[in-house]
Design a protein that fits this description.
Elements lengths: L8 H9 L5 H14 L2 H9 L2 H10 L7 H18 L8 H20 L9 H19 L5 H12 L3 H12 L8 E2 L8 E2 L11 H21 L5 H12 L6 H8 L3 H22 L10
Antiparallel strand pairs: 1-2
Helix pairs in contact: 2-3, 4-5, 4-6, 5-6, 7-8, 7-9, 8-9, 11-13, 12-13
């Protein structure tokens, strides 16, 4: 009861004092809710099992979340269990509802324990909620080596040792704000953690601007190349635009001219392009044919 000091004592007393339901009465209430949507039957069924919700909430109190919130989430799970319960299966409602109450509380803990979402798969949830217990068990057995402990826990839960190590790191530390101030004698002014997370990559607007400029210059170059004849175009494409540039000697052999003549034609074609680009785009043409 000390763990529930913040709760309404009258509510707790009422929940703990609620009479247990006989099997026949429990089944009758469940059938009335299922078949007739009798809310009075639902209320009696849920009220009789609120002690189960409170007991479950105290088991999860060590995760640092308000017990009152855990009880509210457990009550949601209890109502979900009532909506899905099939009395014809001859299973007691408390047995069936326990799973839904626990699952509802565990989902709440995973959503609120850290701002970083974790435990999304069933194995990760099992690791989150059993790691501390298993580590304590291994410590009692004298197994303090992390690597062997992680391997044993991984085998017991069905995850990789790396997953165990990562979860252990998450459970051992709390969330830290990137805007938390840092104090250092070498700092002339207070700094925040985010100040040290520097990305050297260009900003998105710079990348977009570079892409637009590149496309525009390619259009200018294609337009300027219309002044070249067929042989000049071929030489420039194979010498300057191909991924594997042809040598002067190999290109001369293809065209039936000397490599020196290929060089002269290439330089002449580049000079033609420079003149056209300087005439049409005098301010922006610098560096296009570097």
């Amino acid at each position: 009861m000390a763990q529930l000091a913040g709760l309404d004592r009258q509510f707790i007393r009422a929940a703990m004092a609620a009479p247990y339901l006989e099997r026949s009465e429990e089944r009758s209430l469940a059938e009335r809710w299922r078949d007739q949507h009798d809310e009075q039957a639902l209320h009696r069924l849920a009220h009789a099992h609120m002690r189960l919700v409170i007991a479950m909430a105290t088991r999860f109190r060590h995760y640092g979340l308000p017990v009152t919130d855990l009880i509210q989430e457990g009550h949601v799970g209890l109502l979900e269990a009532a909506a899905r319960f099939e009395p014809d299966r001859e299973v007691r409602f408390s047995t069936y509802a326990t799973w839904w109450i626990r699952a509802s509380m565990q989902d709440y803990i995973l959503r609120n324990w850290s701002i970083v979402r974790g435990g999304t798969s069933s194995t990760q949830k099992a690791l989150f909620f059993n790691l501390r217990r298993l580590r304590a068990k291994l410590a009692r057995e004298g197994k303090h080596d992390n690597s062997s402990a992680f391997a044993e826990i991984a085998g017991a839960i069905g995850v990789s040792p790396a997953d165990v190590e990562l979860m252990d790191m998450r459970l051992s530390g709390s969330d830290i704000s990137l805007n938390a101030p840092l104090t250092n004698a070498d700092m002339s002014a207070p700094a925040e953690r985010v100040d040290f997370l520097v990305d050297d990559k260009p900003l998105p607007d710079e990348l977009v601007g570079d892409s637009i400029d590149t496309d525009r210059r390619l259009d200018w170059l294609r337009d300027a190349m219309t002044v070249l004849n067929e042989r000049e175009l071929r030489i420039l494409r194979e010498r300057r635009l191909a991924e594997d540039a042809a040598t002067l000697e190999s290109l001369g052999a293809k065209l039936g001219i000397s490599k020196e003549r290929v060089r002269q034609i290439e330089n002449g074609a580049l000079e033609k392009l420079r003149k056209v680009l300087n005439q049409k785009h005098p301010k922006e043409s610098t560096g296009l044919l570097a």
